[in-house]
Amino acid sequence: MRIGVDIDGVTSDSYTVWLRELNQYFNKNISILEDYDIHLVYDVSWDEMNDFFKQNMEHLFMLPQPMKGAKQGIESLIAQGHEIIYVTARSADEEEVTLRWMDKYKIPYDNVVFSDFKSKVDLARQWQLELFIEDYMKNAEAISESGIPVLLLNASYNQGEMTKGIKRCRDWMEIVNVLNRI
After folding, report:
1. DSSP bridge pairs for 164
2. Which of 17, 53, 101, 174 could form a disulfide with 169 if both were Cys (CB 3.0 to 4.6 A apart)?
3. Which residues are responsible for catalysis (predicted)?
């Protein structure tokens, strides 16, 4: 099976680090991210948040650890013959730091595709993905509506009703178990 896998919040435990760094920068004390649109959580403009990320990209992208179980889960899926295509909202100018992070933690990859904050649906179709692992509810819904099943990795910011074609998974162990049953 050809599986799309998101990076931030799925492969990389980015939001834990980003929350800490954003709290320090914006002098806030936010402990739980309840909205994926971080600029709204911190009550700043999209441009201001984007500038913060551009100025601190190296630090923000290299510091996070992999999500618990992600590396082992991905290795397990590859060993079972699945093909992993990473599809991230990151932009192409973040490719070098993204691949360095993956190398640092020995996350196996052949293909990493950058959507530059645009819809992942066209990329999922282009790469003929048969399943997608995502954490952002809006992406999960759009991908699912295009006919590609989605495993949604549970997070504080993706709670709520799920539409047909999306299955919530608590962690990477559950993701692998679900894929083993398919």
Report:
1. none
2. 174
3. 6 (nucleophile), 8 (proton donor)
> CB within 8 A of 118, min separation 6: which ones?
none
Residue ranges per structural domain of the chain: 2-13+66-181, 14-62
**Superfamily (CATH H level) for 2-13+66-181:** HAD superfamily/HAD-like (3.40.50.1000)
Residue 100 · residue 62 · CB < 8 Å:
yes
Tens-place pLDDT, residues 62-76: 999 999 999 999 999
Which token pair is 74? Answer: 């991905």
pTM here is 0.94
Query: Active-site positions?
Result: 6, 8
